[in-house]
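call fold target=histidine kinase
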Amino acid sequence: MRNGITGWFGRLPIRRKIVLIFLPLIIFPLLALGLLSGEMFSRSVIEKTKNNVRDESRLILSQMDSIVKNTESSANIMTTDIIRLYGERSASPEAIEEERFSNLMESRLSIDLVLFPDADSAVFVDVNGRVYSSYPPQVSRDKKVLHSGLPEKVKAMGSYGVGRWLPVERRDYMVSDPAVPVLTLGKIVFNLDTGSQLGTLFVNVRETTFASILQVMGESSSSKQYYIVDGAGRIVASPNEQLLLTPFAANVSPGLLERETPVSDIVGSGEGNKLATVTAYDRLNWKLVNMVSLQTLNGDIRRNFVLTFAFGALCLLLSLLLAGKLSQIIVSPLLQVTKAMRKVKDGDLNVTSPVTTEDETGLIASVFNSMVQQIKELLNTITEEQGRKREYELALIHAQIKPHFLYNTLDTIYVLNDLGLSEEARDTTKALADFYRVVLSKGSELIPLAGEIGNVRDYLNIMQIRNPDVLRYEIDIPQELTGVMVPKLSLQPLVENAIYHGLKTKGSQGLIVIRARKDGSDAVISVEDNGVGMPPEQVQRITQFASGNGRPASIGIYSVYERIKLYFGEPYGLTVRSKPGEGTVMEMKVPGKERRAGYV
């Protein structure tokens, strides 16, 4: 048989011999090129989609967090107003006096909501069973709250001075519209003088407030959908009203919602394949889920395959028509192209095919060289864009001015003026102006430590006026270290973290101490508090900024750490030490030499 095949091949014309020999050499390189380019294009499309979804998810989470914080701020202001109204309430038992007090209470709740449009409605239930609402009274419905167990549930959650979020639910009482599910913040209100409970405040946020954010992000494509899923696996926000408060069962692979986020995975099967991306919102134990149809993404990939194989078929046809002239002319160039393609497949992009002929082989070589060059340029562009993106993100984080801080401080100034404390109001206004003068300045990013301490002192003075029972502070900075250059607004996030996570939940007045000391040729500035402290796992979550993996637990601390690294290099940064019940120490290490303000 072997002799027969050899004899048959020997009798064939040279054209057929070339066709039989070189057909595999033509087909296999084209297949390799098509598969390689298709695989690279497929991965590029999917990765680009993942990155876009994650960027959109971060924006959605930021807007959700703003809604939650604004609602908490509105609850704090309402609590202050309720306590003030009870302090001014007449002891007269007459019905007209009770009616006047009820009108004052409901008007105050309605006015406070004007400052915070994210909150839809507010209801205050006093200890005597009277219900006051920000919307027109609906006595027959709202009285149901007295038998719902909600006030008792908020009290059982330990709500002294802290608002507690209740699960999203649809109910026909204590809401302005029974048809729309609401997320409710509950907070017990106490008489600050006697410590007795006045009642329970409920602030509602409509589901449509969150759904509107998801609708904006998903409006560009009908194949992309966003959902918000709570800890029980229910859909609590979606542009599709029919899915609200139903189990999230969109062909999600088992355990996807329980994995560490952000995570992206392909779920489903066949034409129903989807790219699912899950991002956690730990503040409410929610998950933001995005579903993108792979059928839409694969459309471009299929077109790329069709074009690649169509080009290969054309080359094959030309090779058949010109087989008699492709003996030695085609063998050597094909070997060179194949050799270059193997190097690219092995990861070496610094190669080009030397073929310069103007036939099909030269065309293949030209396309190959162009593709490799475009891939190299794309990789360089991605590297540069990632570097710029990191700088932009740091600049954006650094430039953030939290609006609720301004709102609360202005409200404090208003209360001080209303109480006739003009000097305290004047001092608070001056401190607020000085604080934002530094925040909004367009000068150097590095300032002397003395300037940063002055800015922190203004911030602490404002926070001390707003929270007189929460904190007091001490500052101990040696004179020889006042000229050390530090990043602007580097101490304020550390102080803010100490107040909100160390002292506010302590239950009694705490102390913040800011110190500076020499450490060889460097300087170490520390922010210490005697608050509730943190367990080791929480410290580890906060200090994960050093690895740069995932979403940092504290944006402010992450910003300070990254800017120190950016300005001074790897030997410098932040360290965190904490013990539960004893407090927390955050140390910032910077070069100890004085530098000119124009260094950056």
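return ok
The mean pLDDT is 80. The longest strand covers residues 197-206.
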